[in-house]
Amino acid sequence: MTTLIYFALIILVPLWAQFKVKRAYAKYSKVAASSHMPGAEVARKILDSNGLYHVGVEETRGHLTDHYDPRVKTVRLSSENYHGHSVAAAAIAAHEVGHAIQDDQNYAFLRFRHALVPVANLGSNLSWILIMVGIFAQISGLLLLGIVFMAAAVVFQVVTLPVEFNASNRAMDQVVSMGIIRNDEERETKRVLDAAALTYVAAAAVAVLELVRLVLIYTGMARSED
């Protein structure tokens, strides 16, 4: 029964977080921002006000595919946010610019996350192979190695949290101080940003829980081998 509850949680928690994001975005993408600025203009205005004239703003395909690419110094906004005049579009555009500002200012957690990318990718791809072989073959050494690789991916997800929260805080500061949103729009903007951050919190929580579960499995296996 406990196992069923556990697996229900690690499946339902991310789904719940995604639902919150989609609901918040659907709601506030229909609320026009008082500035009537499209997301692309919001991003460009904040970038320029911070001296980041070299950072580009591009439209990208997909739904909520917005991101900042540090390799080419470009903020990419999905079509609906690139052209949209909504509170949601302004919030998301400002959030991605927050990452560009972090990059320019050498924000420590962002640098740490970038450094973890190769290790996290290797851990994500290799860990489950080692874990599954270790569990089914009852080889605790392989399981432990898989756990170590998985831990690297978990650390990446945990480090992502301060990066995302800091970008959202920067976004709020920018849109308020520059008059992109009015005082009565601050709560709506924050709800969009908080909902987006919730997906990262859920992902990190699930990853940590799964890591703990595997550590407990390893501990039990190691004891049985003694």
- Count of β-strands: 3
Biggest pleated sheet = 3 strands, mixed
Q: What strand order characterises the main sheet?
A: 1-3-2
Q: H/E series, N to C?
A: HHEEEHHHHH
Q: Number of domains in the coordinates?
A: 1
- The count of helical stretches stands at 7
Helix content: over 70%
Helix/strand-derived class?
A: mainly alpha
- Give the overall pLDDT as a whole number: 91
Outline: elongated
SS strand fraction: 5-15%
**Structural Rg:** 20 Å
Low-confidence stretches: none
Quote the distance from N terminus to C terminus: 29 Å
Task: Explain this structure.
The chain has 226 residues and is mainly alpha-helical. It has one domain. The chain has 7 helices and 3 strands. The chain has helices spanning 2-28, 39-49, 79-83, 87-104, 108-136, 140-177, 186-225; strands at residues 56-60, 67-69, 74-78. It has a 3-stranded mixed sheet. Strand 2 (67-69) and strand 3 form a beta hairpin. Helix 2 packs parallel to helix 4 (87-104), helix 4 packs across helix 6 and helix 4 packs across helix 7. The chain is elongated, with a radius of gyration of 20 Å. Pfam families: Zn_peptidase_2.
